[in-house]
Every structure is written in C-alpha cells, then in structure tokens.
Amino acid sequence: MPTIYTAGWLALARSADHHEELNIQPVRISATCPKFWHPSVMCPSVQILIPRPELWQYQDDDAGFKTAYVARLDRTGPDAILERLDEISAEHPGKDLALACYEANPQACLRSLFTSWWVAATGQLIEEWEPPIVGSQLTMGMTA
Prior knowledge:
Layout: E1 4-8, H1 9-14, H2 19-22, E2 24-28, H3 62-76, H4 78-91, E3 96-101, H5 110-122, E4 127-128, E5 133-134, E6 137-138
Parallel strand pairs: 1-3, 1-4, 2-3
Antiparallel strand pairs: 5-6
C-alpha cells in the first residue's frame, strides 16, 4: 500500500508538471476536479469521502456537518475505503496517493475530519502533503 496523504488542489496544481517526478497521484474527495486541473492527469475518486449534497444543509453548523460526515464514515468502515484506495493504487502503481479537496487549510475542511476518523479507526496517521522544492525551482514554477 502506498503512503496516503491529504492535499489541497492548489498545492497539487502548483506541482502538476512534476507529478511523475514526485510520485504522487491526486485522488478526488471533492465533488469535482478543479477547472484548472490538467486533463492529462487522471483524477480518480473515493466516492464515500465526497460530501453528498444533503450534508451541505450543515454548511453553517460545523458540529452537525462533522456528526453527519463521521456517521457516514462509520457506516462504511475503513475496510471499504482501503479497498478503493488499493484499487486506485493498482491503477497507478508505485505512486503515493493524495486525497484532494479545494480548501487550502486542512483544519478547516473534511480532510481533517477524515484523517482524525481514520487514525481512530485504524491507528494509521495520514499527513498533509506539501509541495517540495524541485531542483532549483519551486513547484509553482518560480525560481528560488
């Protein structure tokens, strides 16, 4: 099993030219892929991690959203999620996976809910992926 990370789409997009070099495969946990996402980079998803429309009734109620989202994860369980991650890993051999959504701050989005739940359910830590410096350039394409 590859290493699993979480990441914001913008961080991944800034390093999109280096995905092969960085050995990272974005995995969508947002409702859509970003419009700015390069079409040549596949965007598999884990449907159970994508908030369904009925969860957005809690957009002004963080506690309600958290309760409903975690209940959905509990009903599914880590084995079903791991099965899907294994499928994606088999489709992209040798790559680490980055569970991606739009929020830049992982503490303000479902990534932190999922990782907290995952640690409690499996004991496995999932860290936030950070774009590294590639060669003499930042992954944003700017010189250091």
